[in-house]
Amino acid sequence: MADAIRLPLQVFYQREARHPNKPYMVQPLPGDQLQTLSWADVGEQARRSANWLRGRELPPGSRIAIISKNCAHWIIADLAIWMAGHVSVPLYPNLTADSVRQVLQHSEAALVFIGKLDDWPGMAAGVPADLPTIGLPLRPPGPFSYLWDELQACAPIQDDPTPAAEQLATIIYTSGTTGTPKGVMHSFSNLGFAASQATELFGVGEDDRVLSYLPLCHVAERMFVELASIYSGQTVFFAESLETFLDDLKRARPTVIFGVPRIWTKFQMGVYSKMPAARLDFLLKLPLLGRLVGNKVLAGLGLDAVRYALSGAAPVPEALLNWYKRLGLEVLEVYGMTENCGYSHVGRPGQFKQGWIGQNSPGVEVRIAEDGEVQVRSGATMQGYYKDPQKTAQTITADGFLRTGDKGEQDSEGNLRLTGRIKEIFKTSKGKYVAPAPIENRLAVHSRIEQVCVVGDGMAQPMALCVLSEVGRQEIANGSRGDLENSLKSLLEQVNLDLDKHERLQRLVLVKDVWAVDNGFLTPTLKIKRTVVEGTYGPHFAGWVEGRETVLWHE
């Protein structure tokens, strides 16, 4: 099957030759400048960099890291790494120094590209002193071993390297339940299978435009932007910053867009800040005028040209999907994992079924295991976890199905509905995985906290539910609430300093109940039943999320 799959570099060379002068990437530069790179420009820069990388005489398949926010040269560096016969290892651009060090050491990275970053000083300490760094054109101030201009001084390679289908292309690190990152290994065949199938499914082509703003190191953006651009020929516009995001969106006027639930909610809140919800809802109900109003709202967001809008990483509230539908935009849900290139299930236009995600993507087999776990198999299934055959064997069955860790069910038409999680690890609304146990352990060191459960599935940021110790409860009864509150605020600040951005707790909630075996909160071995905790306090989550205090009391 792999022989029939068009591989990423082969498709890139075809596009480079077919429309060399077609705009490929549009990159904002400081000073309100724009840089437009053609397919020929991208190809030449990647080829020059590949020649420089070859000159390092590294062993074939060496791991080369990329630490940068989204930018044109993130993708060019990735192409160069592949052309030189190596493996790219992308890192999130907001990791702590400890997390950076962990990934670089585990992957045994031989080089690291450093690009656009908000807090390079906070990350730099995680880069081993003997690891050479390469500064991309958009880079933070500071010393680097080499600069992009030095790579561009090399002549471009004259050959078209074509790695084998089964050759390792990239290692994408994702957090495990213990908080230790796992390196998901994907071959060129995996990437090619998912990208070619997905672009064909939606008919994405050379006239399409996409805005790149979610982290390129995440599998969703990697597939939807980088790989999809190679396979479809779409033009990629890059967002400059959160502050300029709306302007970036209006400039790109994307025809396809991928977002996480938090983004779709932000768009809605932005609209409501300019027009009260009640008035907009009234106008949308009017015949003829409602359609004009909907178009105007979408144009104000830069979404008026969208043909396909997708949302993934976490469930989207049905009310929000319906709101966009009334504006004239159908947002389709996507389901997938890093372990299968994010390619598993997707909604089809006009086939929305309330409460269900969508149907199998082409080429994906699905089965529901006896315990209700959703298991999938396709050409996009990972090669395994880097240096972890034991975890790989636990995750991929003997007959090649990927254990997703999600419980679910399918209807007769192939639509999938998720009904719960088998794993404790959860996903925020930003699509980031959070392992609760290590965070809980950090909070439990406080002498007045007896039990703690970190929750956050589908939330923007997690929060911790805490049960006070008997001493703590006694202090409250004696009127020392203020002192305890200040102490817990300090604890929260300290814990958050040591966490990656997506793991940081928005608040502590001090619950009134005492969790015990008798009332069903604890197992006989005194482990917290997370499902019981979430089921008991779940109705309060929405209100607690809206709260302003970092320490809340559940009376």
From TrEMBL:
Domain AMP-dependent synthetase/ligase: residue ranges: 14-386
Keyword annotations: ATP-binding, Nucleotide-binding
One of the record's GO cellular component terms: membrane
Alphabetical list of Pfam families matching this protein: AMP-binding, AMP-binding_C_3
Catalytic activity field: a long-chain fatty acid + ATP + CoA = a long-chain fatty acyl-CoA + AMP + diphosphate
Record-linked SUPFAM superfamilies: Acetyl-CoA synthetase-like
GO MF terms held by the record: ATP binding; long-chain fatty acid-CoA ligase activity
Xref: InterPro entries: AMP-bd_C_sf, AMP-binding_CS, AMP-dep_synth/lig_dom, ANL_N_sf
Name under which the protein is recorded: Long-chain acyl-CoA synthetase (AMP-forming)
Species, as recorded: Pseudomonas borbori
